Amino acid sequence: MFVKSSKTKLVSLLMFCFIIFGGTSQLQAYTQQQNNNLSIKYYFPIVANNGGFNQIVPPPAANPTAESPAEPTSTPVPAQPTATAAPVQPTATPEPIGGGSPIDPPPNTSGSINDFVTNKTQTDFSNAGLTNGIPTYPNVIEINGRSEGEIEAAIKNAQPFTKIILPAGVINIGTIDINKDNIILSGSGNGCGETILRFGSNDSGIHIGRGGYTDSSSNLTANANRNSRQITVSNGNAFNVGDYVLIRQNDSGEYFRRDLSRNSGEDWTANNATQMNKVVGKNGNTLALEGGLNLDYLTSLNARVAKVNNMITGVGIENLTLERTSGDSAEYESANIYFKYAANSWVKGVHSIKSVRSHVTFNKGYKSEVRGMYLDASYNNGPGGHGYGVRLEGATTDVLVENNIAKLMRHSFIAQIGANGNVFGYNYSADPYGEGFGEIYTDLSVHGGFGHSNLFEGNQAQHAKIDNIHGSNSSNLFFRNRLEQDINNYTYKDQLMSKGASTPHIWIHENQYYNAFLANEIGFPGANQATQTVGFDSGRVRDNFTVCKYETSNDGERGCGRTRETTINHGTYDHLRNEFMWDNSINERDFPNSVYLNGKPAFWGNSAWPSFGPDTLQLNETQKMIPAKSRFLNAQNGGGSFCHTGR
Hints:
Elements: E1 14-21, E2 24-35, E3 38-47, E4 120-121, E5 139-142, H1 148-157, E6 162-165, E7 169-173, E8 176-178, E9 183-186, E10 195-199, E11 206-208, E12 212-213, E13 218-219, E14 230-232, E15 244-249, H2 260-263, E16 273-283, E17 286-289, E18 304-309, E19 312-313, E20 315-324, E21 337-340, E22 342-343, E23 346-355, E24 358-363, E25 369-371, E26 374-378, E27 388-393, E28 400-402, E29 405-407, E30 411-415, E31 423-425, E32 428-430, E33 444-446, E34 455-457, E35 460-461, E36 464-466, E37 477-479, E38 482-483, H3 493-498, E39 506-508, E40 516-518, E41 521-522, H4 529-532, E42 545-547, H5 560-566, E43 568-570, E44 572-574, E45 579-581, H6 621-624, H7 627-636
Parallel strand pairs: 5-6, 6-9, 7-10, 8-11, 9-20, 10-20, 11-21, 19-22, 20-23, 21-24, 23-25, 23-26, 24-27, 25-28, 26-29, 27-30, 28-31, 29-32, 30-33, 31-34, 33-36, 34-37, 35-38, 36-39, 37-40, 38-41, 39-42, 40-43, 41-44
Antiparallel strand pairs: 1-2, 1-4, 2-3, 12-18, 13-18, 14-17, 15-16, 15-18, 16-17, 44-45
């Protein structure tokens, strides 16, 4: 094997291809750059090494300094008319997604689908989020009253593509249901503090969509490659152009495995090799899809597709504060804002105060966004689905979670139960906390039930984990994040230390296959080694990047050996030990700026970008602070809003 390289700077999509030759497991990853119509591919051969990826080399010498960061001022929002306009279509120039224009989809390089075991191509993450960004709607209704009934009446009577603006002040509600398309529910003003919705229900504060899918499915009659945008089904007459669909297949042991001693009776964790999509064309029994497939879908695994009924589209929640006033037990399918069977929808610039289950949930969501939020603590940070910030689950696909703040959450940003193709980008998470646990809790989490093919990029958080609590997860990518574990600033520092908190900054449990960690940072300059050194077994010190907790490489149900063989760790820098971790078999050490953007996000301002990775260590801490953290610190000191209501 060899490396094709170029001195040209990578600015485009990073992908992974995992390949097994004969009886020897060999992983291969590639990136593709498009620059002036020039296509360059980088191939990274990665051999099976049973976890031997921690080659230590000195840090690089300092380079010239970059621009100093500054939180950009918000662009004023034009005043909305007070009268209800005649219904028209939305404007053709929507707000862009994160400021970076989408990257052209890469070619399908997954090879022959007939050899499923030997070809595993990673996801095109540029699909995540609304295709043309968050729209503005031309029709406007301003509500003067403060009753839930007036809000519900306005929603019921609104024409398509209507923005409903709530008055400033406090409005007490139960649950607001939005079951129609193309509605924006917005607070007054340009920030998130003028309109406050308070609710004490054990249901959701705002519930968007109910939906469902047709029980009868149409089977695939031919295998479909990952990244392909078409499928062939047994009954094309069951689908129309514009239909939303749920694509499923049975579990494959190549990707998914449950620890039977732990997951007994958890039937809901099985058969989550699934995703949402949309039919955009049809020719007989062949359906053209809007998004690429995030797995290889095989007839041998009973691959099938079902039509979704009553998918809600185009619903936005913007520029308000939503406060839960009761910590009573909430239903599992509840959140401060809950989307169920919703597509092309969004939350922007919302301060969500005190959840029980989660602040925002997407269940079977598709191509939506959560941005500029402040996820502010929880009444319950205990086990059983409590204390979540943004929770993506139930086959939710291609959702962009970007530029948010979370504090005192058990899991700030989490993908689980078949969530796939989603991007968690440039979020800040502080002070994660799990009640009753003697460990630093996980704020960047892939949490079982086969969360697959998700991207965590550029986040400034505390602890990342891919866990085996509810079985395997696969093909997730962590790129240019910093996991700080800044325990000196934790609210519950004394409690954690009294329990001997010893948690690695990055932890991959057993039975987790084909996950990759590239260009991440552990700790921060000047981190206190005494409070951050980790160790599990008596007399045995573990690395701050831990793959499995167990010593043996072939330990039956634990599956640690294969987890280590298929985990990529390349370019991780450990500030606590002043060391790099490189995969010995990968020669390429030049990383692209982003996996899903081809330029600096619009909300970034003049800050140095990217902030984290082995090529950014020359920057000082002010330069490396992402906008979400800067916004958080400024707001704590009375210098502005926790929310970001612009792009």
